[in-house]
Specification:
Layout lengths: L13 E4 L6 H15 L3 E5 L12 H19 L4 E6 L19 E3 L5 E6 L4 H15 L5 E4 L19 H11 L5 H10 L1 H29 L4 E5 L14 H6 L7 E3 L18 H10 L4 E2 L2 E3 L10 H13 L6 E3 L13 H18 L7 E2 L1 E3 L5 H4 L14 H10 L4 E2 L5 E4 L9 H8 L2 E4 L1 H9 L3 H4 L1 E6 L5 E4 L2 H4 L6 E3 L9 E5 L4 E7 L5 E10 L5 E5 L16 H14 L6 E5 L3 E7 L3 E8 L8 E5 L9 E4 L5 E3 L4 E3 L6 E5 L9 E6 L1
Parallel strand pairs: 1-2, 1-11, 2-3, 3-6, 6-7, 7-8, 8-9, 10-11, 13-14, 13-15, 15-16, 16-23
Antiparallel strand pairs: 4-5, 12-25, 17-20, 18-19, 18-21, 21-22, 22-23, 24-27, 25-26, 26-32, 27-31, 28-29, 28-32, 30-31
Helix pairs in contact: 1-2, 2-3, 3-6, 5-6, 9-10
Length: 676
């Protein structure tokens, strides 16, 4: 039985890098020096120079790389540094034809019949032979763990409207499975239009991912039963259409003691600051799904483009977020995967030294999992399999998770995956939920996009939703704020739909008792349809419906993230359940808030998302019984300090408001703790 790799009572930095065979001596000593200078005791070594090599090592190359890692493991052990392996078997970094490099009979094939000769088909029997040989070689290093990189999925899923792979072998296997022979064209038509066929296909795709994970695990454990086989979880939102539910793959890896899991961090750059908050979805959701009994090593990237791609300020925020989510072992890619010096970005060493006290302070007060507050987002891994409707675009089956976190997070509304008095459903997840859950949701406080509202109507709940979404509206110009009670100072204003996808806005055929908050207008400012409605149903539920569909990868969310929408969302949440926004930054408006409440302590992480620094914020508190005298915060040295002297109570009869006078630069979070 293996020991615990990671100390449970500290932040464990992991250096994640490639150690070149052609420059071993210099680089291994640099690794030792980097670890000593940054108090790092773990190194994760790549099996290949991923950004400059072929997508799959030959077995002879694998033997050389494994010998190099084994030699490094022995050298690093002299200085108390442990080693894990980051393996890749089909990561498509190279853009060139691999038929001269790899011997396969079947290659990834799209729905239109075009092949990508960079990646073997996952069903090719020769891949099984390769994986068994490759992972036997790696297991013989006897590292702490071997990760499968996030190429363990259908890498070109969605390309040319393709579900997984449509090579001849996939067609043959599906024929044997179903007893129905189809051409590639007929199969693709069935996958788009026949829900029963689609379900069978997705199940087949998922079973193969599980089978490959089991092949790797069995191979590794046959050599060394104490090596953990870890899952580098891909971006989660496309996984339902591949049959990948995270846990099915993780279970096949047969954890020895505790699973080793790497959540991704979202975008690898901060050039679009609006993507930073929604990028947190991936680690937040994986933590929610898998719980506490996991060794998480969240990826932290400036690779390969240093601070030209991502600032150390964003890196600090990412590590802080990982720690607040109970993930104490950040895997730091400091210099890329090409064998460059880990000192390529000179800021890393000073950063890791100087910020350790802050990180340890955050780790020491991290909230219990399951206590996060806010608007609850609900997703189900069976959403694509359960969707009974024809689909036009495979990518539309991806969860709209990133977009929902973009909309709520960037407008300052706390969100959660834990149980909450307000829920938000978007996309096709409704089709996968049992009637008992739908009835419970509809009897409470529920926000819906047009797709979720349509799905509820399809499920027979039209009378409880307050509307029936119909055809797409065209043309549309913008949206007029028309209800004085819910839009207040913005009534009569407009917000733009100039970048809203053309098929995204649906005609809401509303019940007589529904309350219309806004109207879609045409180019002559004529009101052509409701934009947002409220409805109280016979179950006692309070329902809000957007006429707009929230897609999985909408390129522009300014029709959803704006002052008018922020105001009306705040009024809707106050109408439904004010406690769903326990802390809200009233001014300035460009702040993100995350909250956890275990009944004894409220913890809020308040983050400026603007390039405009501020020295003062006004915060609305919707938790009864809190006083400024009980408020503390974590200072830059990781110490818990009283915040009371910085708080002015400016509450009114209607609101508990605190004015907090502290410098709040971009992405340097104020972590505030209130003990009851």
């Amino acid at each position: 039985m293996r020991d615990n790799f990671f100390a449970p009572d500290r932040v464990n930095y992991i250096l994640r890098t490639y150690l070149p065979t052609w420059n071993y001596e210099a680089r291994v000593e640099e690794i030792v020096r980097f670890c000593k200078e940054t108090d790092t005791h773990h190194v994760m070594l790549f099996t290949d120079a991923q950004h400059i090599c072929w997508n799959q090592l030959t077995l002879d190359e694998a033997k050389l790389e494994a010998a190099n890692i084994a030699k490094a493991k022995a050298r690093l052990a002299q200085d108390g540094i442990r080693v894990g392996i980051n393996s890749s078997y089909t990561m498509p970094q190279s853009r060139f034809d691999h038929r001269g490099q790899c011997d396969y009979d079947y290659w990834v094939t799209r729905a239109d019949g075009s092949c990508d000769h960079r990646i073997p088909c996952p069903l090719d029997p020769k891949l099984d032979t390769y994986l068994k040989a490759f992972y036997t070689i790696l297991a013989d290093v006897h590292a702490d763990y071997i990760y499968l990189d996030d190429d363990h999925r259908y890498l070109f899923h969605g390309d040319n409207n393709t579900f997984g792979c449509h090579c001849d072998l996939h067609l043959k296997t599906f024929t044997e499975r179903t007893g129905s022979e189809r051409t590639r064209e007929a199969l693709n038509d069935a996958l788009l239009n026949d829900a029963a066929v689609r379900r069978q296909w997705i199940e087949m795709l998922g079973e193969r991912l599980v089978e490959i994970a089991r092949i790797v695990s069995d191979t590794v454990h046959a050599v060394d039963p104490d090596v953990e086989v870890g899952q580098m979880v891909p971006c989660v939102h496309p996984l339902p259409a591949m049959g990948h539910s995270i846990t099915n793959v993780m279970d096949a890896m047969a954890p020895v003691t505790r699973p080793v899991v790497r959540p991704c961090i979202g975008p690898y750059g901060d050039t679009i600051r609006r993507h930073i908050i929604p990028g947190m979805f991936y680690l937040e959701f994986i933590g929610h799904v898998l719980g506490d009994d996991v060794d998480y090593t969240p990826e932290i990237e400036t690779t390969p483009h240093t601070r030209f791609s991502m600032s150390m300020t964003t890196v600090r925020f990412h590590i802080t977020q990982a720690l607040l989510n109970g993930m104490n072992n950040p895997a730091l890619s400091t210099s890329g995967y090409m064998g460059n010096s880990m000192f390529l970005e000179p800021e890393w060493v000073l950063f890791l030294r100087n910020e350790r006290a802050w990180f340890e302070g955050i780790r020491s007060i991290a909230p219990q999992r399951g206590t996060r507050c806010g608007v609850q987002l609900i997703f189900d891994f069976d959403s694509t399999k359960a969707n009974p409707n024809p689909i036009d675009d495979v990518n539309d089956q991806n969860w709209p998770a990133f977009m929902l976190c973009d909309v709520l997070g960037n407008m300052g509304f706390a969100y959660t995956f834990d149980d909450s008095p307000v829920r938000f459903l978007a996309g096709d997840t409704v089709y996968a939920l049992p009637d008992t859950q739908l009835q419970e949701l509809l009897s409470g406080n529920l926000i819906l996009d047009a797709s979720a509202a349509k799905a509820l109507v399809d499920r027979g709940y039209a009378g409880q939703v307050g509307c029936s979404p119909g055809e797409a509206i065209a043309p549309f110009g913008g949206e007029e704020c028309t209800d004085v009670d819910f839009f207040g100072p913005y009534v009569g204003d407009f917000f733009s739909h100039k970048a809203t996808p053309l098929q995204a806005i649906r005609q809401l055929n509303i019940a007589d008792s529904a309350k219309v908050l806004s109207h879609i207008i045409d180019h002559d400012r004529k009101r052509v349809a409701p934009g947002m409605i409220l409805f109280e149903n016979a179950l006692g539920g309070k329902i809000a419906v957007f006429a707009c569909r929230i897609g999985s990868s909408d390129p522009d969310t300014r029709h959803l993230v704006c002052y008018q929408r922020q105001w009306v969302m705040r009024q809707i949440l106050a109408w439904m359940a004010p406690e769903s926004m326990p802390v809200f930054v009233e001014s300035p408006k460009d702040f993100a808030v995350q909250c956890w409440d275990d009944g004894n302590r409220l913890l809020a992480c308040i983050t400026n998302l603007s390039y405009d620094n501020t020295d003062e914020i006004t915060v609305e508190i919707n938790v009864a019984g809190l006083t400024p005298a009980a408020v503390r915060y974590i200072d830059d040295d990781g110490a818990s300090q009283s915040l009371t002297e910085y708080i002015e109570d400016v509450s009114t009869d209607a609101q508990m408001l605190w004015r907090i006078q502290r410098p709040m630069p971009l992405l340097r979070s104020l972590v505030m703790i209130v003990e009851r």
